[in-house]
Amino acid sequence: MSERNQLEQLKTSAFDRRFSLAKASFLAGTRWATANASSLFGDQSSREQKRKQALSQQAQYLVDEIGKLKGSVVKIGQMMALYGEHFLPDEITQALMTLNDSTVALSWQSIEPYIKQQLGDKFHELNIEQQPLGTASLAQVHRAVRKSDGKVLVLKVQYPGVAEAIDSDMNLFRSMMKLTRAVPQTREFDDWYEEVRQMMHREVDYAIEATTTKRFAEYLADDPRYIVPTIIDEYCTDRILCMTFEHGVPIHSPAILKLSQQRRDALGEAALNIPLKEIFEWGEMQTDPNFGNYLVRLGNGQDVLDQIVLLDFGAIRQFDDHLLAMAHRLIYAGYLHSMDRMLDAMDGYNFFDDMPRSIRPDMAKVFLLTTEAFSCPENNPDMPVGIMDEQYRYDWLASNLHDRIIKHAGQSMASRYFSVPPKEFMFISRKFIGAYTFMTVINAKTNVRKMVEPYFP
Predict the structure, then answer these.
(1) Cα separations (Å) of 66 from 3, 96, 179, 199?
(2) Is the pTM of this model over 0.85?
């Protein structure tokens, strides 16, 4: 990471952040207006192309400015990117998707005094690398070596002032949304927005994340397919989370695609096994399946397993028994590929109960498509030919499932009945889509039916 891509100082005061957002919004809005005016000339096709190009460029400008602010305002943008298809133009959604990669690091000269202040005398027990391993919206990660024994650690350093700026950031972003009318002001959006606010406060509470990391490590302690970093309490503070360094390659690494089909299938099963356990056994879910939160530690293809390294447990969401029971019924209905079962599974949940009866079959069809991999050719006549073999292994890459879901959901009557899905479904679907994408990226073929059968009567 070059020094040119680093910040010397964060804008942490409410005035600085409010002024930066207002300035960026004003400039972006002015440029959009100018671009729209210039696109009045020419034929319809060229006008539309110019409009889209200008919208994309100015959206990227706004995203770049947001990325410099760090904090919850960036995380909100990332959430908007994930669910933007419900209420934002494609150009804005695509620009927001770059926020994960566009966040810049805080320079060592700026962050070193902060780390010293947090660690006190323990700072001198570590050799900390000045260049961060990675950056995110709320923190950046530095590798360190403990001088006493050479143990390699990582320090997740929360940016100064971002925890205190969460509520003001949320209010600023909400005001910006209202002014631009970028999203509908509905009850569903209000509920979702409040959920994001609460999630932001949980994510900056490193005591909670440390406890959660330890709990998930216990959940997976006897499963050799996973690695969860060990929390090193002596170097943890309110604003620093310290854990063991765990090596691995990114999900997109060419090394993974070079693995045999059998090894990629096993990794795919391991990826999907996590959300299934979260829904059917643990009752809580890590709801941020960003690929940056995962690594793969490659084995040797014989006696050493390939393993998934789980790096981040800040976005944990716990679900009540009522929601979990309904989720179980929905998945079981998908396993049976039964429209009647799916409609019955929706009963008793406020969101579905408040929906007109005429809309429910459309929603049920979306759920049946979403759970296509849980069904089989014998009970699902709508399954495309050739994407599930005789061993019931589902071909995720060939299925094109994600695009088919988006297309079907967009065409359904249900999509016109509500604009923002209930927050619970947004987080659960986010995790499953993450697992689906994981399997698609590594070109895995998995027998999902075999994985869920133990949970059914």
Answers:
(1) 19, 10, 17, 19
(2) no
